[in-house]
Design a protein that fits this description.
The protein is of the alpha+beta class and about 130 residues long. Helices cover about 35% and strands about 25% of the residues. The longest helix has 19 residues. The termini are far apart. About 15% of the residues are buried.
Length: about 130
């Protein structure tokens, strides 16, 4: 057991700095989001708007940015069968990008784009390098 309180604070500060540096990287990853479980029990007329909110919430958790922007094609895909009939799963590409706006409160934002796939069997989270 350590008696000095300064040793703990130095150690935790170093971990925090490393974690912060990792989250500031510009990176793109492909995820499969199961909307079916996130929309269970939601009123029919609120399903598509809730799906968009759930996608944004998922992107915030994965990319650790509060500024999340949903691409128009993904929005179109969620709404293509109407407000009630949202797809069970959706494959998305989350890209952490630099904010071009100088007076923005956040330096980074997340762009969520739709990735078209044949089926969802055997898909895992993948880091995308050629974007």
């Amino acid at each position: 057991r350590c008696s000095s309180p300064t040793r703990h604070s130095r150690r935790s500060m170093a971990k925090g700095e490393a974690k912060r540096a990792r989250s500031t990287d510009l990176v793109s990853r492909d995820y499969t989001i199961n909307l079916h479980k996130r929309l269970h029990g939601v009123t029919f007329k609120k399903r598509a708007p809730r799906a968009i909110r759930e996608i944004k919430k998922f992107a915030m958790q994965m990319m650790k940015t509060s500024d999340v922007r949903v691409d128009a094609k993904l929005n179109k895909h969620i709404w293509h069968c109407g407000i009630r009939n949202v797809p069970y799963r959706v494959r998305v590409r989350l890209s952490r990008k630099r904010n071009e706006d100088e007076e923005a409160s956040e330096k980074l934002y997340t762009l969520v784009q739709h990735v078209e796939v044949e089926g969802f069997k055997g898909l895992h989270t993948e880091v995308v390098t050629d974007v």
